[in-house]
Write a structure and sequence with these properties.
InterPro entries: A-D-PHexomutase_a/b/a-I, A-D-PHexomutase_a/b/a-I/II/III, A-D-PHexomutase_a/b/a-II, A-D-PHexomutase_a/b/a-III, A-D-PHexomutase_C, A-D-PHexomutase_C_sf, Alpha-D-phosphohexomutase_SF. This is Phosphomannomutase. The chain has helices at about 25-35, 55-65, 80-90, 125-135, 150-160, 180-190, 220-230, 260-270, 285-295, 305-315, 340-350, 355-360, 380-390, 435-450; strands at about 15, 45-50, 70-75, 95, 105-115, 115-120, 145-150, 170-175, 195-200, 235-240, 245-250, 255, 275-280, 300, 320, 330, 335, 370, 375, 400, 405-410, 415-420, 425-430. It is of the alpha/beta class. Strands 1, 2, 3, 4, 5, 6 and 7 form a seven-stranded mixed β-sheet that branches.
Length: about 450
């Protein structure tokens, strides 16, 4: 087998269907995953998104799992957080077939151990890759079985048990599902709640005919923003393709930074459990740890990436974690990320008071950020070193290298510069107290990176 490092990423397996990912290869991945988890579990739960290739790839994976004597519980068409719910509630390892927000020609596999515990490069993915590259050993015993199970109702009940909207005023909510899995899950989760849904692109279509299912790209929320203004909605929600991320716009159609959502949800969770630990990655706004401390919580800063967040949540017993990329993690959801649960928290917070969302979230938005700026560079390490040298002797500068290079200049702002794991890119995030300061710091760093 050829080198698979190009498609076995840091957190998942992902590639172009028919070129990188074939049914034969996916069957091998299923068998290798079965070998990895066989000592701990006799069964694997498998789900898939709405992409045209997903059902047959999920079936191919199931053939690989059963070829090693393990059973498969197929939960069919689900969102990624539903797969995590099934893994947690059934206490089984899981596999989700999705390429999230990637274009239609892509697909992939997100894997987890029982209890939705992540499988990344250092926790099993590299071993799976090596097994497939070297050739999966055959199994002489009885093959496993495949059974089907519907988890939708139990998933909805669990979410409703975690967020109470019974005291909420009725809210008009525009939801852009982007032809992704939100089109299936949103109607079921919102049924019976004081919510009037205005749907956009709820038809499941893995070709994404209206726009890419990546709400972090401003181009992909234009329709949502326009519809919110047109119908006078209280809030707009946009889900990515596999519906594990949720992006929010206020009643004016203005985007609400994911850091503000992290702070809002953190405050709500701290009311339930005073003094609890809240996780935030190092690109999240400084407002998040400030607000967590002000509400009696303990903020803990981590590297970027869901495996680091989940590991730190397990280590610290954290109740909640948030990332700048609109991934939100909940201890009561097996430390897995679920945009749907975050959305319910936002709706509950909005519905239990009379003011607009812009007024509510203003409490959690204290600084101006650049967003992520990518620069293509030939020498990532050299450019990072040049930036570090430029700021090392700056008065009051605090530098750390937890994940790339973070430089805190106090009132002048701070920035993080990280290399991409998969591309020749440096990713820059800058935050400051005002627009002018943020722009000045951004320009200074980019001049070194691109100079």
């Amino acid at each position: 087998m050829s080198d698979l490092s190009a498609i076995v990423k840091a957190y998942d397996i992902r590639g172009v269907v028919g070129e990188d990912l074939t049914e034969e290869l996916v069957t091998d991945f299923g068998a290798a995953f079965a070998l990895l988890i066989k000592p701990d579990s006799p069964s694997v739960v498998v789900g898939h998104d709405m992409r045209e290739s997903s059902p047959r790839l999920a079936d191919a994976f199931a053939r690989g799992v059963t070829s090693q004597g393990l059973d498969v519980v197929s939960i069919g068409l689900v969102s990624t957080d539903e797969l995590y719910f099934a893994s947690g509630s059934l206490n089984m390892p899981g596999a989700m077939f999705t390429a999230s927000h990637n274009p239609a020609r892509y697909n992939g596999i997100k894997l987890c151990r029982a209890g939705a515990s992540p499988v990344g490069q250092e926790s099993g993915l590299a071993e799976i890759r090596d097994t497939v590259e070297q050739g999966v050993p055959s199994f002489a015993g009885q093959p496993g079985t495949v059974t089907e199970r519907d988890v939708h109702d139990d998933y909805v009940k669990h979410l409703h048990s975690l967020v109470d909207l019974s005291g909420s005023r009725t809210l008009k909510v525009v939801v852009d599902a982007g032809n992704g899995m939100g089109g299936l899950t949103v109607p079921r989760v919102f049924e019976g709640l004081p919510i009037e849904i205005v749907p956009l692109y709820f038809e499941l279509d893995g070709t994404f005919p209206n726009h890419e299912a990546n709400p972090l790209d401003p181009a992909n929320i234009v329709d949502l923003q326009a519809k919110v203004r047109e119908v006078g909605a209280d809030v707009g929600l946009a889900f990515d393709g596999d519906a594990d991320r949720c992006f929010v716009v206020d009643e004016n159609g203005d985007p609400v930074p994911p850091s503000a959502i992290t702070a809002l949800v953190a405050v709500r969770e701290l009311k339930k459990e005073p003094g609890a630990t809240i996780i935030h990655n190092l690109i999240t706004s400084k407002a998040v740890p400030e607000i967590v401390r002000e509400h009696g919580g303990r903020p803990v800063r981590t590297r970027v990436g869901h495996s680091f967040i989940k590991e730190e949540m397990a280590r610290t017993g954290a109740i909640f974690g948030g990332e700048h990329s609109a991934h939100y993690y909940f201890r009561d959801f097996w430390r897995a990320d679920t945009g749907m649960l975050a959305a319910l928290h936002v709706l509950a917070a909005l519905g239990e008071q009379d003011g607009p969302l812009s007024e509510l979230t203003a409490e959690y938005t204290r600084y101006v950020s650049s967003g992520e700026i990518n620069s293509t560079v030939d020498d990532q390490a050299g450019r990072l070193a040049a930036v570090k040298e430029a700021f090392a002797n700056r008065d009051g500068a605090e530098i750390d290298e937890l994940d790339g290079l973070t430089v805190d200049l106090g009132e002048a702002g701070w920035f993080n510069l990280r290399p991409s794991n998969t591309e020749p890119l440096l990713r820059l995030n800058v935050e400051a107290a005002d627009e002018a300061s943020m722009r000045a710091l951004t320009d200074e760093v980019l001049a070194i990176v691109r100079g």
